[in-house]
Amino acid sequence: MQHYFVPLDRWTQEEVTITGDDVHHIVRVMRMNIDDEFYCNRPDGKVAFCKITAIQDDTVIAQILHWSETNVEMPANITIAQAFPKGDKLDLIMQKGTELGAASFLLFEGERSIVKWDQKKVDKKLQRYNKIVKEAAEQSHRSLLPTITVLSNFAELSQVTFDHKFVAYEETTRSMTSKRLQEVFKQIQPGERVLICIGPEGGFSEKEIDLLKQHEFQCIRLGPRILRTETAGLYALASLSYHLEETE
Fold this sequence. Notes:
CATH 2.40.240.20, Alpha/beta knot, 8 helices
């Protein structure tokens, strides 16, 4: 069953008005017609089961039949802070991170980041990534749409406020001196906000790690192997999902 995220100003108590690219998807791709049914998601996470009552050139009107009680969101609010990677790796990180339950993404330039974002192109890049996240959230039947924020500098990352702040550090993996991931994740309780920081291809510098530690970040190892930057955050999300959703 299809899901569509619809802005709050398109809702009334009885119906939803859908515009933009979603109309093309409903009418041309899915070939829906009057009385066909699908889910519409509000920005606050509420999900309505709807039935099409009218189709115009650029608008679909759907009646709200009932509200869904299903909750598919992570018990804890998980944010992935990702250093800019090379190429199109962010496409994969955004798509799969959304499918795995990330609540939001923070993007930043690390000391060893090869890619430097031109500030003039940030809006265009965000438009692309927000589209990827929206499509992934609809495909995976998420209730909430993850947000994406580009940080102005690394110092801004060090000062963010969360209940738990973790940084994946390859030297921690090599030394094998840290706690196992399972032990670290036992700290996390439902409803808490969790940040997991992932470095670029070259990893974090010692200077960056020292700064994060000064702001109560915990260094963690993501298993015994060294992971690529596009794999690390997904590994952490999958591990957290299992810990929070599949174990008692």
